[in-house]
Amino acid sequence: MIPPGTNLHIYEIRGDIGTPLPPPPASFIGIWNEEELWYLFFTRPENDYVAALSSQFGSELGSHHEMKYEDWQTGLPPEGISVGGVRFVAPNGRAGPERTIILDPTVVFGDGNHPTTLCCLRFLEQILRSRVVGSMLDLGTGTGILALAAAAMGVKHVLAADRNYLAVDTTRRNVEVNSLSSVIRVELGEARLFVDKPFDLVAANLPFQVLRDVLARDGASRHKWWIVSGIHQEQAEVLKELFREQGHEIQAERSHRPWVTFITENIRRRPS
């Protein structure tokens, strides 16, 4: 857990830096990758280490930002966040009457405060309250919050996937601390790599371009239900049409401007 008041030092590198990294200093938090950009997070300045790293791999060293942790990550409130009978608390939080999940987001998106995450959690609880869901795919898992919630709500087999190293590392730690490794498998990779195997439910809180590319591969037709978020209204209409072409109906929708979240159901056939 990163204590409030901690200074974050964020270094940007363009180009390949190779993984795993050479042994990092103790202040290292993790590495976030976006195409050819790599962002290294530390709790103190590490100019020499980052300069040596970029030089070793012939990469371009970019900006260096410093900010307070609470300016980067809202964080869970002391009492936690309760959704669908599951309570998410920080590592130093206390259990309550609900099912309690320890969640340490570090610097990764998905601490439960964003409206897209909250809508996904509420729709997840809605589906699981009335339907039997044996398996779930969580695309763009982030901190693992949706996968953890699904496991706490009774889903027996969950695959949590993300293309970012730091998200995968963070999710794995959250899965382990909650003793859910027998239920949740965590994998590194692009979303398109995971949609060919059928799941009862897919949760995808992802950018529009990623969702569109996944659906263009007939990615919806193999799965019974989808929860889709991370998009605006015009983007949602495009995706809904792709779902309909693959045999899905839109079952519910919620809007928290500018974000839209919706549920689809495969009405042609169940996953095989």
Short account of what is shown:
The chain is 27% helix and 32% strand. By secondary structure, it is α/β, with parallel strands linked by helices.
Describe the protein.
The chain is of the alpha/beta class and 272 residues long. The chain folds into 2 domains: 7-72; 81-266, Rossmann fold, CATH 3.40.50.150. It has helices at 47-56, 69-72, 115-130, 145-152, 165-177, 208-216, 233-245; strands at 7-14, 28-34, 37-42, 60-68, 81-83, 86-89, 99-102, 135-139, 157-162, 184-188, 201-205, 225-231, 248-256, 259-266. The strands form 3 sheets. A 7-stranded mixed sheet has the order 10-9-8-11-12-14-13, sandwiched between helices. Helix 6 packs parallel to helix 7 (233-245). The termini are far apart. The mean pLDDT is 92.
> Assembly type of the shown chains?
single chain
Unreliable stretches covering 5 or more consecutive residues: none
Number of helices: 7
Evaluate the radius of gyration: 19 Å
| Order of strands in the sheet with most strands | 10-9-8-11-12-14-13
Estimate what percentage of residues fall within beta strands: 25-35%
Shape: globular
**Number of structural domains:** 2
